[in-house]
Description:
By secondary structure, this protein is of the alpha+beta class. It has helices at 2-14, 23-39, 63-84, 107-124, 139-147, 154-164, 172-177, 184-187, 189-197, 204-217, 255-264, 278-282, 330-337, 345-355, 360-376, 378-385, 430-433, 457-469, 496-503, 518-524, 562-598, and strands at 56-57, 99-103, 132-135, 244-253, 287-293, 297-300, 305-308, 316-317, 320-321, 393-396, 416-420, 442-447, 471-475, 509-515, 530-535. The strands form two sheets. Strands 1, 2, 3, 4, 5, 6, 7, 10, 11, 12, 13, 14 and 15 form a 13-stranded mixed beta sheet that branches. Strands 8-9 form a two-stranded antiparallel ribbon. The longest helix has 37 residues, at 562-598. The chain is globular, with a radius of gyration of 25 Å.
Amino acid sequence: YLQEGWDTLKHKFDSHPKLVKNVTLFNNVEELKKTVARDLVDKEAHPEIERVAYVRQGNELSEEEIKFVQTRKKKARESFAKFIGVDPSEVHEDDVPVIAITGSGGGMRSNIDTFGYVRGMKKAGLWDCVTYFTGVSGACWGIATYYTVSNGSVDATIDQFKSAYTIHPFSPPFILNLAKLENGLELTFGAVERKRLRNCPTNTTDIYGAVLGAYFFRKDGKLDPKDFKLSLQKRLIENGDHPMPIYVAVRHERPWRDVQEAQEIENGLDEDLDNFDDKEHGSKKAWYQWVEFTPFEIGNDEIAAYIPSWAFGRTFDKGQSVDKVPEQNFGLELGYMTNAQSAPTQRYVHLVDRGLPANWIGKEIRQASTKIGERLGAHRVDELESHHPIHTGRDPNPFHLLIGPPYEPGFITADYIRLLDAGMDNNHPWYILTRANRNVDVILTVDGSKETMYDDFFDRMAKQFLSRRGIRFTPLSPSTRPSIPQTLTPELKGKPDAIHEAFKDAYVQVYQCEPVDERGESVIQGRDMRLVYMPNLPCKKYPEFDPINDKICGTSNFVFSENDIDTIVGCAEACWEESLETVRETLRSVWESKKKKRMGGQ
């Protein structure tokens, strides 16, 4: 796949003498296959290849995560006391709330504005109290930057944004410049070549992730190999010095595809599927299964199975790796987490529907669509809407044949794990924070979504989450989220006081997390759990700037000036300042609740 592409490009370069100066790129590509083959067995560069990996079954936290949480709480105790305004002697370690910060989908806009909030939290003293840092889609880029090339510094992360985002990652100058970086091709396209050498399918999603890895992690004209291994991010969290990162992707479970794959299973396994009802199983609706990536483990709570992070990319069979290859390139993993282009048809239909005019034309199109759906039938519509026009990335399924026999068609019978952007299911990573035994007390949700100014957006996300976890978000303020303008209107633009008046009640809302069934009860377990929702909105400090609809904030934009980044970060930090006291009051309330419960109160 790669070789054919490079051969085509080389032919074009050879026919244009002005481009011969870039022949180094092609000479390097010619050597790439040899370099990658040597790298596959390099024990010094990849000590993990001497280890056999095993699947850990059960939804208990890993020993490493348990130790991290304990260590982080000890370090956070004094900072937490200072933040809520009490003497440290009053705060027992067990009463320090487990706090998580979440970033949303929303491309580079969300990536950058999340760190405006983080910078504000750092200045306020809250960042040192946070246990988990997670995000969906674009937010993953900023999180990855913090834990790699920026070495755990908020200011360095923002500076990296300024130095890296001056060129488009998929522009010819950037791609050609990769050959000039020391080990540039090896750390990017070498990851794709490694998959090819192992006969693992590759596609455009792999190329997408490979290029983005170099784009985000290059610094001073260099790439550091350690930034391309997720497992090495543990160096920043082992002593409890930083929050633990959790990256997310989803697997699209489509039951009718299980039927097709079950019929293709070889090696005598068909007899173990005799009791499988093709018709009944194939008629089920599709859903998304969340896969979490941490420096410690990668796994899914539905099948309650996890592998060491350094083992992703290996071939597994019945709970054990059957080969020993280097850890998957983190750039490729980031590609899976953020590949919104691999969305199912339903996502594209939704975007088109949002853009339809409110006049008779839009009405006619919607009515025609409804009639077509009625004619096809609900199940056929589900199949069509769940189709992926652009293929997702594929890696060997680490949970292959883990549970059984008999083997239930689905996740464990698939030869490959196909992952994509978790925003396809929910633009907020609440699902993985409510995994059993994680015991998060307060979720601080930063929302940089394009749709955050739509009145029903939060309600739709909350309803979807309720259906999955059995947890309802009940507002603690007198009313639900207030109605706000969907854009910075001409009547508001440039008028600080008018902007503040229009949005003042929308910068922060607090919700009680309440269980509605056994699923929710198993997560909350009687705790006082809260969600604090903070949408990124226009603010009086930047009265000319609309953080959602401004041209530079387009979801597909990758190029920013230093002033652009200062503006986006500054506006987000100003929004945080509007939320600060509400967050402080919420955390103090949860702390008092935990303290009372520990001391035997009701």
